Amino acid sequence: MKMFWSAVVIFLLLHINGRRCCSDHERDSLLQFKASVLDPSNQLLNSWHGFNCCDWKRIQCHPHTHHVIRLDLQGSYGNADVYLSNLTGDVLSPLFNLEQLEHLDLSFNNFAGVSIPPGLGRLKSLRYLDLSFAGFSGDIPPMLLTAFPNLQHVNLRYNQFKGGIPSPAGILHYLTRLDLSSNALTGNIPPSIGQLVSLESLDLSSNKLEGVIPLNISNLYKLSRLALSSNRLSGDFSVSHLDNLSQLRSIDISENLLSVKISPTWIPKFSLQTLGLSSCNMEGEFPTFLITQYEITSMYLSNCSLAGNIPQWIWGANYLWFLNLSNNHFAGVLPHSLTGSFLFMLDLHSNNLQGQLPLFNDQLQLLDVSDNQLGGSIPAEIGEYPQLVYLSLARNHLSGSIPPSILCRIRIVDLSNNKLTGKIPACFKNSSVIEMLNLENNYLEGELPQQFAEMLSLQTLKLGGNRLNSYIPTSLANCKQLEILDLNNNKMRGIIPNWIGQLSSLKILILRSNRFEGLIPSELTTLPLLQILDLSSNRFSGIIPANLSSLQALKDQTVAAEIFLSGDIGTLKLYVDRVTINNKGQWMEFVRSLALVKCIDLSSNNLSGGIPPNMGSLEGLIILNISRNHFKGEIPKTLGKMIQLQSLDLSHNQLSGMIPSELQLLTFLGYLDLSHNNLSGRIPQGGQLLTFDTLSFSNNSDLCGLQLNTTCCGIHKNKSCPPSILPGINVDETDAEKDIWWGVGLGLSYAVGFSLVIGVLCLTTTWSRKCFQIMDKIIIYLFGRFRK
Question: Is residue 703 within a helix (H) or strand (E), and if so which, with residue range?
Answer without folding.
Answer: strand 702-704
